[in-house]
Amino acid sequence: MSTSRTKQELRKDPIVGRWVIIAPERLSRPQTLLNDDAISCDSFDPFLAGNEDATTPEILAYRDGGVANGPGWRVRVIPNKFPAVRIEGALDKRGDGIYDKMNAIGAHEVIVECPHRETNMSRLSVENIREVLWVYRDRLVDLKRDHRLVHGLIFKNKGTRAGASLDHSHSQLIVTPIIPIAIQEELDGAREFYDYRGRCIFEDMIQQELATEQRIVLETEHFVVFCPYASRFPFETWILPRHHSSHYENITKPMIEDLGTVMKTVLSKLEIGLDDPPYNFVLHSAPFASQDLPHYLWHIEIFPRLSRVAGFEWGSGFYINPVAPEEAAKFLRETEIED
């Protein structure tokens, strides 16, 4: 497949206001438009300890010893080798007839979650998962200092159907100079509810879910996990903090301790109960520049990839979910995992 030498750009859809990243270099990834197979850990694994020279130089690493870009790390952050956005340059906002565009400035990083061969985050120790979650916080704190950048999205693709090109357990961070439309829609809806009722919609959701208990998967001191009332996908699962916080980068150590246990438990339930499905999770957090928002809660959304989005969904914006969230939550509550 041939492509033109179009450079990376952000282009705005003038009808709905959605920004699209045009990134031709992404075709050079191990998984391309014409290749559905992820590179297995059974072949050469660039994320394995000892193979650091096969990756870009590290940005951050939590280490037991050794030197930068060598073995001895527990969690490692590197620039994505095939980035959707690049940190160098100016935004250069400009028009193109009726259209708007700018350079695709931002940060695209990979968080390598462990130095050994592992495909499933749930099989990492809870201490390892907690460090991964703290790395998320560290990178957001650092990148929000760049005034060109306004929002950071953390996500994980597990399995080929979920978009992973390497199966060594890892997650990613993309920081952009605009607020993604999915985040903006959440912010707008939450603000409208707050302006009308004077309450945070996310906190109201938590209270109702705890009161009915129909869609609760688990609850802890700091977090509530449930299948949302209008789940778009089978076994869609959300993790929300019980205490108000709109920015993930403000998370505290006690919350990280709890969240590590929650993530390990929820991912284990999904993987054991659903026979190790591909999945995505995304961490939604408020834009960098805003102060703590009274109408918004940061949260994690997990989507097992058990069904395919087809023509009706793409054309209408509706989703067809064959599994009621009440049944999904009951199934996950009753799924036993090893201690």
TrEMBL record:
EC number, as in UniProt: 2.7.7.12
Recorded superkingdom:
Bacteria
Q: Which cofactor does it need?
A: Zn(2+)
**Which biological process, per GO, is one annotated for this protein?**
galactose metabolic process
- Similarity comment text for this entry: Belongs to the galactose-1-phosphate uridylyltransferase type 1 family.
**Name under which the protein is recorded:** Galactose-1-phosphate uridylyltransferase
What residue stretches are annotated with the Galactose-1-phosphate uridyl transferase N-terminal domain? 7-180
The record's listing under InterPro entries reads:
ADP-glucose_phosphorylase, GalP_UDPtransf1, GalP_Utransf_C, GalP_Utransf_N, HIT-like_sf
Q: Which UniProt keywords apply?
A: Carbohydrate metabolism, Metal-binding, Nucleotidyltransferase, Transferase, Zinc
Active site positions? H170 (tele-ump-histidine intermediate)
Q: Does the keyword Methyltransferase apply?
A: no
The record places domain Galactose-1-phosphate uridyl transferase C-terminal at 192-309
Organism lineage reads as:
Bacteria, Pseudomonadati, Planctomycetota, Planctomycetia, Planctomycetales
- NCBIfam families, alphabetically? galT_1
- Organism of origin is Planctomicrobium piriforme
Q: Which GO terms describe its molecular function?
A: UDP-glucose:hexose-1-phosphate uridylyltransferase activity; zinc ion binding
Note the PANTHER family from the entry.
ADP-GLUCOSE PHOSPHORYLASE, UDP-GLUCOSE--HEXOSE-1-PHOSPHATE URIDYLYLTRANSFERASE
UniProt entry tagged with the keyword Protein transport = no
